[in-house]
Design a protein that fits this description.
The structure holds two protein chains of two kinds. Chain A is mostly helical. In chain A, α3 packs across α4. The two termini of chain B are 33 Å apart. Chain B is α/β, with parallel strands linked by helices. Chain B has an eight-stranded mixed sheet with strand order 1-8-6-7-5-2-3-4, sandwiched between helices. Chain B is globular, with a radius of gyration of 17 Å. The chains are: A mainly alpha, B alpha/beta. Chains A and B meet through α4 and β1 of A and α3, β4 and α4 of B.
């Protein structure tokens, strides 16, 4: 029997799957990112619809409980996500520095005409 | 000649200055962030000896750029703050475009002595090396706090282990490069970890280098502007992340 929580989770996961698909089609995310996130939301939907399946998979992996499997997977996905965001941030910072440098050199002015005479 | 030669003279007489034609080819790059208080006097001191001073304002929120424009030969400005490493790279690239024969990096907080520049450039001009690195531990460091000394010595140890370069002072902003050596510099660590990146550059290129005794004077102002121990740990983190990430 499907409970209220499962209905809510399936609805949410369904919306997120559709959202990922739309984002991929519109080019807001790359195809690879779209596939990854759609897979994640599908897995969440399956876990919500058939919670006993997580226990079966967990036992097959030697973990024990289904909820522990979900927890471990969530942590791994988050860490991967943090790493990807950090890498993107580093790249953005690098590009920003290059841009700022280019502008600085282009705009640089000789201050010689404003400076006092150099001491002899 | 490859490798390291340390000039370990116990005395530190005032170094004779360079010939005028050599001095004209020396470009002194001074990166500055909120250094309006000290920058003017620092530039004047340097400019009394060397005509080409490139002051790089790293997105300061005070009057640093105004001071730079008033006193420096060339004033370059980052529209937003990017870090000392980024400012140094900007200054180096600018100096190369202006035809510099020698590029000297110099701090804006008044810790360095402009009279030491000649000692750094002389061996490069004589063809004995391509890079000169200032060392306060071979020279003289006045009023250095004990904690700062310990932190710097740890940095020396870190560099010997990680970078496998034997130096007595690994975080001294007073350095000199030949044009050839400066042309290959590409600082990617924008903040303070650039010092370690430059040491890695020295190692990787195999350019002959020398450590030169220099004066470093600590004042309340320069200590307040300098790196804390926590900042040193942040430098290590950024340096190591730069090693593992693209």
């Amino acid at each position: 029997m499907i409970g209220l929580f499962q209905v809510a989770m399936l609805t949410l996961a369904g919306c997120l799957c559709i959202g990922s698909a739309v984002a991929t089609v519109k080019g807001w995310v790359t195809r690879r990112e779209g596939i990854v996130w759609t897979t994640v939301w599908l897995a969440a939907a399956i876990a919500a619809a058939w919670p006993d399946m997580t226990t079966v998979i967990a036992r097959a992996l030697g973990i024990g409980r289904g909820k522990d499997l979900i927890l471990y997977c969530s942590v791994i996905v988050m860490l991967i996500g943090f790493f990807m965001v950090y890498a993107r941030l580093r790249a953005l910072r690098r590009d920003l520095t290059l841009l700022v440098r280019r502008l600085a050199i282009l705009d640089s002015s000789s201050a010689a005409e404003h400076a006092p005479e150099q001491p002899q | 000649m490859n490798g390291h030669t340390a000039d370990t003279s116990p005395q530190m007489p005032a170094a004779p200055q360079l010939p005028n034609d050599v001095r004209e080819g020396v470009f002194v790059v001074i990166p500055a962030y909120n250094e309006a208080q000290s920058l003017g006097s620092v530039i004047r001191d340097v400019r009394s000896l060397y005509p080409n001073v490139v002051a790089v304002d790293d997105g300061s929120v005070d009057d640093t750029y105004t001071v730079a424009r008033e006193h420096a030969t060339f004033a370059v400005r980052h529209l937003i703050n990017r870090g000392q490493g980024a400012a140094l790279q900007t200054g180096i690239e600018f100096a190369l475009r202006q035809g510099a024969s020698y590029i000297v990096t110099f701090d804006a907080d008044g810790q360095h002595d402009a009279n030491d520049i000649a000692a750094l450039v002389r061996p490069i001009h004589a063809g004995e090396c391509e890079i000169s690195l200032g060392s306060r531990f071979l020279g003289e460091a006045t009023h250095m706090p004990l904690l700062r000394r310990l932190t710097l010595q740890l940095a020396v140890l870190f560099t010997r282990v990680v970078s496998r370069v034997k130096l007595t002072d690994t975080h001294n902003g007073l350095r000199a490069f030949s044009r050839k050596a400066a042309s290959g510099i590409n600082i990617t660590l924008d903040r303070m970890a650039h010092a370690s990146e430059l040491i890695d550059y020295v190692r990787d290129t195999g350019y002959p280098y020398r450590e030169i005794p220099v004066h470093v004077r600590y004042t309340d102002y320069s200590l307040a502007k300098g790196q804390s121990t926590r900042g040193a740990l942040r430098i290590v983190f950024h340096y190591l992340m730069g090693k593992v990430m693209p």
